[in-house]
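re the bet — no i am not wrong, look at it urself. input seq straight from the record:
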Amino acid sequence: MKEKSIAMKITVCLLLVALFAGVTVYAAKQVVKYDVHDGTRPRPPVITPAAQPGQPPSDAIVLFDGNDLSQWRGGKGEAKWKVENGYMEVNKTGSIRTKKSFGNCQLHIEWATPTVVKGSSQGRGNSGVFLMGIYELQVLDSYKNDTYPDGQAASIYSQYPPLVNVCRKPGQWQNFDVSFVRPIFDGTGKCIRPARITVLHNGVVVHNNVEIKGRTEHKKKAKYRPHSDKGPISLQDHGNPMRFRNIWIRELPEQPYLIAD
């Protein structure tokens, strides 16, 4: 029995070494596919950048341009948030989500908390931006408003506080610029590549390529559960009259060195 146990351990170790080697070789093949300065290497596609910072480049999908909610739906059909003066406003009709689904993406969104301050902590200017409808980037009035750090504005909810608090005063427009890499699951439902996210809040890096630990849930330890390769962008109705405008997204391809074999 002891010999069998030792043999089994050796076999497992060899399999792990082979797996690691396979992943390393795969990554190497993907990254070193071309010689240095190889003229046969495919050229990146050309897109036109925005004329002004924060505006969508030519390959972006505009999710809200200030006119209507045609790109959104509510929990039970039509999205019913108020639209006026170039923004949409939460009005206690429930959270909304995009009709289209996304995986890896670059997202730009602008938001403003109510000018008239009411409540405190999580009851003040609360909403959230959910990547794939699952992973929450917190929206909150965190200007001189204390709350638990992993629930303040720009936190990866219940996981990571932002590196710094750069919230503007209530009523002023703020923005998130997000780069998101989706998680990958194997055939058994195991997460073999966690999601990663980089976030700029008002132009300041508040998350630098951090690994999301799993679903972002209130008072629950994060863990992954398998889901589709793409999901909607969701905006939360937490009961506060939050405003959003200038929302656009770019779908991003997989980068070969990030793909597990």
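see?? The longest helix spans residues 2-31. told u. also Confidence is low (pLDDT under 50) at residues 10-30. so pay up
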